[in-house]
Amino acid sequence: MDEIQLLRHRHDAQPGPSPEATRAARVRLTGRISRSHAARPRRPFLLIMAAAALATAAAAILVARPDPGLPRRPGAATPAVTTTPTLRPVSSAERLALGAAAKAAGAPAEPTGPWAYTKLMVRLQDGRTATQELWRRVDDSAFAVIENGELRTIKGSEFEVTYGFLLSLPTDPAALLERSYTAIDEREARLKRKITPEERDLFTFQHLAMGMRESVLPEGLRAAIYGAMAKIPGVRYSGRSADLAKRKGVTLRLGGEEIFVDPGSYAYLGYRSRAGDRLLNWDSLLLGRFVDRAGER
Amino acid sequence: MPPDLRTSDASIIARSRAEPECFAEIFDRYFPAIHRYAAVRLGSAAADDVAAETFLAAFDQRHRYDPAWPQARPWLYGIATNLIGRHRRSELRLYRALSRTAEREADDGHADRVAERVSAEQLTPALARGLAALGKGDRDALLLVACAELSYGEVAAALGIPVGTVGSRVNRARRVLRSALSVPDER
Q: B136 lies in a domain?
């Protein structure tokens, strides 16, 4: 038996993975797949596209269908971005945040359970939609998904915006915004990237939007995030819109990043991300509540 | 389980760009093989992690998959080999431990049992020492040929090196091992 045969013989004699190891590895992969359904643009070129879309959209907003009070640019080119039915000044976004804060008065300031349950409707790249259920520990120690009809729990957190970060945020909008800017500055420093002030605004808005899309938040914190978003330069409010689940709502938007909010209950409805005319992500939060254990709805 | 020829790996990976859940099929097809390869090099405990991470990395890199390769085996083995490279010290420790274990059992008078096992799960002390003495690139190429049964072309794709380099690495590695086993060269 030569050396190749010896090595091959030894290889073939390996017992193979145990059922437990196979199951654990599959759960990890399923968790990653679940995250990817609505992954935000993480690669630099997509971030650059998003930043470019910000500039394009900002110009388009001025010429799309402005309110009478908004300036019209004479001779402006045909907008590259689809028009929205109604555009109002950012003060409407501030009113939205104030209304949400007023409604949140007296609501619990902390999570009312160790797990956050969310049911998302997501748009797949071929245009179809799918729903995803997720249970996420508010201490970031684990999350769980349904795979082949079974609940799988995965240790750790694979979420870009952790609950640790979200729950550490102050409920004063200005302070919350400052803390969020700092988080983005630290992230970009780690990545050794230099960003423009416009990109800093966009990434901060995106960070907060990402934080809301797969989490359940105390109402006061949610209102403060709306308030912080309203303070970001360039953020626009649209009074008439519909989310992926075709629910009527209002939106806060910066460039291609957009969140949908129910103007009556101030509930967060969903998130959409576009780069130019490319739709990168669109999902709607169908259900969201704190629960006592994974699997509980 | 042999790959379903009606649905190539390449088409599944292409589909998984729009429908990520399709990628689970790639896992089902190749996880046992990748695990076995990692276990040979690192032991079964470390193989659990490396094999799992191979599929996470593959999923993240699926947009870069070259559709010219209908089968994903070389691609997956290449990713696994890169991950194993991060555990080089563990791999060398394993070879040394296998060598010592076999020698100790032989000293204890269990020669017959050792003789049965050295050709299966265990390595002969000489072969273990020979593997430990190989350069990383040479060991990667040899084990992909011997254990994963990849062709030189597939090894080249897996490691991102020219086919000629694969040949020279494998030949060099085989000479070292044959010397360790005191087997005369064929020429």
A: no
